[in-house]
Amino acid sequence: MLRQIIKDFVIQQFNVDPAVFDQPGLKVADLGLDSLGVVEMLFEVEDLYGFQVDDPARYSSMTFDEMVADMETTIRAANNGQIPAPASLQGKA
Amino acid sequence: MSNHPTVQRVVVTGIGLLTPLGLTRATSFDRLLKGDSAIRPAAPGITHWLPHALAADVDPAFAQALDRNEQGLDRATQFALLATREAMADARAADWDIQPERVGVFAGIGLGGATTGEALYTRLHEQLQAGRNPTVMHPLSVPRLMPNAATAAISMAYQFRGPTHTYSVACSSSAMALGEAYRSIRHGYTDAIVVVGAEAMNVPGVFMAWNALRVMAKPYPDNLAASCRPFDQDRSGFVLGEGAAALVLETAESALRRGATIYGEICGYGSSSDAKHLTLPSSEGQYRAIRMALDESGIAPAGIHYLNAHGTATEAGDVVESETIRQVFGDHADHLPVSSTKSQHGHLIGAAGATEFAISLLAMQSGSIPPTAFLDKPDPRCTLDYVPREARHGQALQAVMSNSFAFGGSNVSLIARRYA
Q1: Using one digit for the tens of pLDDT, what is the confidence trace for B207-239?
Q2: Using CB atoms, which residue from A34, A39, A57 is nearest to B213?
Q3: Which of B338, B273, B277 minimizes the C-alpha distance to B304?
């Protein structure tokens, strides 16, 4: 779910080729985002789950899947091990 | 337009500083030379949500100097008025023989009425939550909030009837206001201009928005006051400051007529746009602004004896700026003292350009160069003489430069030399 949210955002916002996401071991750096772009991408998830990532710069050296896993861990740590329904999506059809 | 057949020489005869370091020019500059830092934990309304937030706030005692009317103005306008008061007294402008129609007020403002805006929306939401009618707003909310509130207050207070301009170019705002004021006087549109830079936006909503950009300094483990570390390996970003700087600019003719003290002559102004990235700096754009200022001044690179850097202590900013300086100044770069005083007063955004240009003039006048206060381990990519840790005294400075590089890609470079 998180992976899909971020992937959709990056494709739409930054015109990244969807085929890029089929690459095994895709790196965050391979998406071609600058530091502001990375922060914008993270905000898509932060806004849904009501938290802020501590140090976005560290994601630049991770693979895309490592970043998604790291964000999942962060969300679970703040919610008793669960991934709750995203706050911003509640009440929407 | 002008009756003057030739261009006028433009000098600075008054300086007012109201900064996180002090409420006057003298205290601000003295503390700067001592290497003192005004960086502290941010206000409780901010640290409640961001426990590690830092800020460089103005001493609340500033408000004692405000009369009843001024107490109702936006905080940034209050700062602007008080800095102007000091600058006007310093210039002995009461003795001016200049017609008020020939005196302008130019301001550099980043967000302007941030405090008023935040209060307005806070009130709206509080009224709504309490089930009360939200339409009852203070009738002066708009004129307090507007970016030209400072120029309006100053022109009314001193009866200046010339042009009032407000430049809003983020971190370059008041540097641009200075440059444009210099041109206005130089080309005969005005005889004197009070230039003021003002900013006050350390309120929770605005602060959290800055925080989301991930450009704010983290607390330095051993010494919180040393958290803003331009050009240092351990730098982690800038600290939001607030305050105002005011400078009285006039023709050399009028300054000499009444025997005013001249801090220096403004002799070079460059302005350029990167047209590249919203927040990342570009060496090419910076280079053109600096080069333009140097060309106008007619001063060779080796003739610049101190440079007050933009030096925000961000990862990209410090490296790009250092490269640009090396490129412009060539061999002289190794002999040019460059310091970022943001290490002590924080980033005054709209007020930064005027504050740092005023500091450069005070350095030239006093012969004392303020340091980059907490530079212990320079980033290997930053290879200039950053005047680390301690001020340098007894320097014969003939000309000084101050650079400002803004979000949005607007670059401004200013040069002043001793008046002779």
Answers
A1: 999 999 999 999 999 899 999 999 999 999 999
A2: A39
A3: B338
What residues pair up with B106 in beta bridges, in sequence order?
B165, B195
- B295 within a domain of the structure (yes/no): yes
B371-383 average pLDDT score: 97
Q: What are phi and psi of B36, to 5 degrees?
A: -70, 150
For residue B121, tell me if it sits in a domain.
no
Cβ-based contacts of B312 with chain A (< 8 Å): none
Q: What is the mean pLDDT of chain B?
A: 96
Q: What confidence tens digit (pLDDT) does each residue in B283-317 have?
A: 999 999 999 999 999 999 999 999 999 999 998 99
Separation CA B45–CA B51 (nearest Å): 10
Rounded to whole angstroms, the Cα distance separating B199 from A76 reads: 40
Fold of the A2-19+27-82 domain: 1.10.1200
DSSP one-letter code for B156: H
The half-sphere exposure of B200 on its side-chain side, counting CA atoms within 13 A, is 27
* pLDDT of B172 higher than 60: yes
Structural domain for B163, as ranges: 10-112+147-417
Lookup: tokens for B63: 């408000």
In a domain, B131, yes or no: no
The whole-angstrom distance between B282's CA and the closest CA on chain A is 14
ipTM above 0.85, yes or no: no
Tell whether B107 is covered by a domain. Answer: yes
What distance in Å separates residue A81's CA from the closest CA in chain B? Answer: 23
Q: What is the pTM of this model?
A: 0.94
User: Quick count: other Cβ atoms within 10 Å of Cβ B131?
Assistant: 7
| pLDDT one-digit tens code per residue, A22-58 | 999 999 999 999 888 999 999 988 888 888 888 888 8
Q: Which helix (H) or strand (E) holds B81?
A: helix B75-90
- On whether the CB atoms of residues B30 and B22 are closer than 8 A, the answer is yes
B331-368 pLDDT, tens digit each? 999 999 999 999 999 999 999 999 999 999 999 999 99
Chain B residues 263-322 with a CB less than 8 Å from chain A: 277-280, 315-316
The answer for residues whose C-beta is within 8 angstroms of residue B303's C-beta and 6 or more apart is B398, B399, B417
- Could you give the residue numbers annotated as active site of B? 171, 310, 347
